[in-house]
Structure to design on (476 residues):
């Protein structure tokens, strides 16, 4: 039997909700959160399940356990308990246990941006701090580390740029592994009395100037193109180098220019409203709007655009996209909506809402998402729709988004599995999926981006907490 801090048999009660009576009753969001929270409460048990040798990524053949990651490790689970503890102090001990376990594992993984290493631990500690400001010494130390690490990364990028070679890799700007995600953490550190200091403020200033500079055009092959162009030699995989032999422009929230748009918007909202930063937001937003494609359902944004697509006289026909947080219309719409509200550009907010409404009208088989988890599942899409719907003023648009939110809530809850160790499983496609009657492999993942903790977070009400977990996704 598993219990929450109040001694309630939450996993059993959640299962009973699904099996009571002659027909299964739908699981409620509250019961699903309770189920996940009870199943993840013991970090040692979580590690033993997630790190099983047979619990492997079917593509990269890696165990689905990264103890020092937000995606599938302890910082990601700590986010859940930190948020739960904001409204129920009984979860404070679980938050502490996960944060402490992450601290003990800090040397087990390299730093790869916001989602791994000490930066991930700082994100978790900031969330677990709560209004009371817990973990001050830890947060101060990690903020100092982050400021130095960010400075070192910026120096390395400056050295490469000084060689006169245009083009960047994802690490120069993306939200998950790049300089945008860590800039978002520095924004919070700089406004915290404990974490702030000259080093943090200097690192933040340099980071914002760096992101602004990446939005300025660069001259390549006789053409002016956006500065976030990724040439073939800097692509992440051999497949990408083959697919984009002349480089590409990534539109996604996870690894594309939408992540920096979200971070620069957050900076603007925090008072960094100088003309250069504002101009950078405008450049990104207008470029994204220029990449609006259309199908029978309405407007959408592709996942990526090749060099040839970007410099062509006309936009191409259909391009691959998802209807997910990581890639496609939802992530772009969320960032563009926030930017439009911040800069008072109603045409941006209208375009964002119209595209999100069109995405929800498309057949679900075209969404290219799997399961309930955040990155490219129902959970991430639910969170975006919920956050945008909260601020939409047009009654018809609000009604459509509310219907979409209700649908996505049902789809997410339908993925609950009381027999799964964590209450939800992460669905992953594998190389032979196209020829298999089972298109996914279900793995037991604990963290935020790819795990059950993230699903539970997406099921929490949308609210304006001081340090909402949504900021790790570029949604706040």
């Amino acid at each position: 039997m598993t219990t929450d801090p109040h001694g309630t048999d939450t996993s059993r009660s959640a299962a009973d909700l699904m099996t009571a009576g002659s027909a299964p009753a739908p699981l409620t969001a509250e019961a699903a959160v309770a189920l996940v929270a009870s199943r993840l409460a013991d970090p040692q048990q979580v590690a033993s399940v997630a790190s099983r040798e047979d619990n492997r990524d079917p593509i990269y053949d890696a165990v689905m356990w990264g103890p020092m990651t937000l995606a599938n490790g302890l910082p990601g689970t700590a986010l859940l308990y930190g948020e739960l503890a904001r409204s129920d102090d009984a979860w404070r001990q679980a938050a502490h246990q996960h944060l402490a376990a992450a601290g003990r594992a800090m040397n087990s993984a390299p730093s790869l941006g916001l989602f791994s290493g000490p930066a991930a631990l700082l994100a978790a500690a900031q969330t677990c701090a709560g209004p009371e400001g817990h973990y001050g010494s830890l947060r101060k130390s990690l903020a100092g580390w982050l400021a130095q690490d960010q400075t070192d990364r910026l120096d390395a990028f400056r050295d490469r740029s000084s060689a006169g070679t245009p083009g960047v890799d994802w690490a120069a700007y993306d939200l998950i592994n790049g300089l945008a995600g860590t800039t978002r953490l520095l924004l919070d550190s700089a406004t915290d009395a404990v974490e702030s200091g000259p080093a943090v403020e200097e690192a933040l200033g340099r980071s914002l100037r760096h992101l602004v500079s990446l939005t300025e055009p660069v001259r390549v092959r006789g053409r002016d193109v956006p500065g976030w162009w990724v040439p073939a030699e800097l692509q992440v995989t051999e497949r990408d180098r083959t697919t984009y032999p002349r480089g590409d422009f990534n539109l996604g929230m996870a690894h594309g220019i939408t992540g920096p748009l979200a971070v620069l918007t957050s900076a603007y909202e925090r008072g960094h409203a100088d003309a250069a930063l504002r101009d950078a937001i405008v450049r990104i937003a207008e470029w994204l709007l220029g990449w609006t494609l259309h199908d029978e359902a309405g407007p959408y944004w592709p996942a990526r655009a090749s060099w040839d697509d970007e410099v062509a006289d006309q936009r191409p026909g259909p391009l691959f996209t998802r209807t997910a947080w990581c890639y496609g219309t939802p992530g772009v719409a969320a960032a563009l909506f926030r930017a439009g509200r911040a800069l008072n550009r109603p045409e941006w907010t209208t375009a964002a809402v119209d595209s999100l409404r069109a995405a929800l009208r498309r057949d679900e088989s075209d969404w290219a998402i799997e399961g309930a988890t955040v990155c490219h599942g129902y959970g991430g899409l639910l969170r975006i729709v919920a956050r945008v719907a909260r601020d939409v003023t047009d009654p018809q648009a609000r009604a459509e988004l509310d219907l979409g939110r209700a649908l996505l809530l049902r789809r997410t809850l339908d993925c609950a599995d009381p027999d799964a160790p964590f209450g939800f499983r992460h669905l992953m496609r594998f190389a032979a999926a196209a020829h298999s009657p089972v298109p996914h492999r279900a793995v037991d993942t604990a963290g935020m981006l790819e795990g059950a903790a993230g699903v539970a977070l997406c099921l929490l009400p949308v609210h304006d907490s001081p340090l909402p977990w949504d900021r790790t996704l570029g949604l706040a």
Notes: The beta strands are 218-220, 223-225, 248-250, 293-295, 298-300, 304-306, 426-428, 441-443. The CA atoms of residues 155 and 450 lie 32 Å apart.
